[in-house]
Amino acid sequence: MFERYDLNKTTDDKTYEKSIAPLQLQLGVLQRSLRDLRVPLLIIVEGWNASGITMVINELIQFLDPRGFSLYSVGSPTDEEQARPLLWRFWVKTPAKGRIAIFARSWYSRSLAEQISGIDSKRSIKDAIATINNFERQLTDDGAIMLKFFLHISKEEQKKRLNERENDPLTSWMITKGDWDFHNQYDSYLPIIEQCIEGTDHPYAPWTVVEATDKNHSTLKVYSTVIKALEKWISSLDSNGKNQKKNNIVKPKRNDVKRKSSPQVSITKTEYEKKLLEYQDRIRSIHYILFKRKIPLVIVYEGWDAAGKGGNIIRLVRHINPRGYDVVPVGRPDTTELDHHYLWRFYTRFPKTGHVTIFDRSWYGRVLVERVEGLCEEYEWKRAYTEINEMEEAYVGSGGGLVKFWLEISKDEQLRRFEHRQADPLKQWKINDEDWRNREKWDQYESAVDEMLARTSTPTAPWTVVESDDKWFARLKTLKTVIDYSEGLFK
């Protein structure tokens, strides 16, 4: 692939000065347009060591309003980032609507570096490419613009620049043994880099290879590419300022999941209390093993209103170390969360290695309440099934554990619990007008639940339906499921 590019291309200073001035002014205009249209932009600049990444980015930002962009220089992961899946550190840096995020190196460099170093040796390059494609497609499907540049220089040019920097007192600090190690492996890394670029070059997130031997030429090419892409995107908007181009939505195949609200067996209070203590003691031990083995675990609770999610969670965490888990109650997104991809607020709460995060409701709100209440567009909730499956598969593939519960109760049992809550002064805070409104849409929610379970119960992340008309049975089943799943992670 790289052999197609002429690395001898140059632009003289006079031509450069004449050409760059209008581009710089236009970039500022386009930044303001993106802000007004509330469109996020991601610019990724990758390249060989000493290819001029810092120089190109510095030129690019000179005529941007610094209040409207964030620059991320990506190097070795911090301790916090090391304790998370690779893409976590980039998901949390994705820009809000109307802002620009510029990455000086990105998930590409880190994926390559972590595979070479053995940090992420379990995944192949093909797996990494597939995960990256999903990540970039999800962002652009949600309205983001993504432009990717690779600054290409020859092995000889790289050696020349490394020597020049090493011999200059002002730049010698920039050169490390790693730079030379990477240079010595130039020929080995080249086909891997080509494979990554070719495998992730798509219309929604295109690559531009920049011949970077000459500073003027590389800067002009990056500037002109950014401006042409943004102008083309803006020109595609309709009269309402919307981009009407939607990717074809392919829903995952259905895997029908049976739902029952009543268990086949009943349990006495004595049996319940005995088993509860036994399971809680076992979960305390499991929690310690998860911590020692640095395995993160996510537990998702979804279910009908009054199905008993809170009671289940209380029994689950009662005997485990409070410093090792978080319970995340999910409600309406705030303004900051609404300015990002809907999965963003959940990525920010995923556990680090050895910790447990319990979601009291979750990302499934997109295909339940947001679908039924019309809080998102139809094409948004329809594509969410695939996005959710991809997110969960990537999380489990990175070494995390994931348990998903759907707490099923009958319509009559829900009514009984609603009325009990209204009559009990200590429980009245649990019931509100919205609960009653949701109940009026039971049939719509039931249809949404059926499809959610069918589209998102996968071999990687299956749903466990909990018969919750019997609270005692439901609590024991959730605890036993967590125990069995966690013990499977230790094998």
The profile of the biggest β sheet is: 5 strands, parallel
Count the domains.
2
Average pLDDT, all residues: 93
Tell me the number of helical segments per DSSP (H or I, 4 or more residues long): 20
- Name of the CATH class of the largest domain: Alpha Beta
Notes on the structure:
50% of the residues lie in helices and 12% in strands. By secondary structure, it is an alpha/beta fold. The protein folds into two domains: 2-235, P-loop containing nucleotide triphosphate hydrolases (Rossmann fold), CATH 3.40.50; 269-489, Rossmann fold, CATH 3.40.50. Strands 2-3-1-4-5 form a five-stranded parallel sheet, with helices on both faces. The radius of gyration is 26 Å and the shape is elongated. The two termini are 43 Å apart. 33% of the residues are buried. The mean pLDDT is 93.
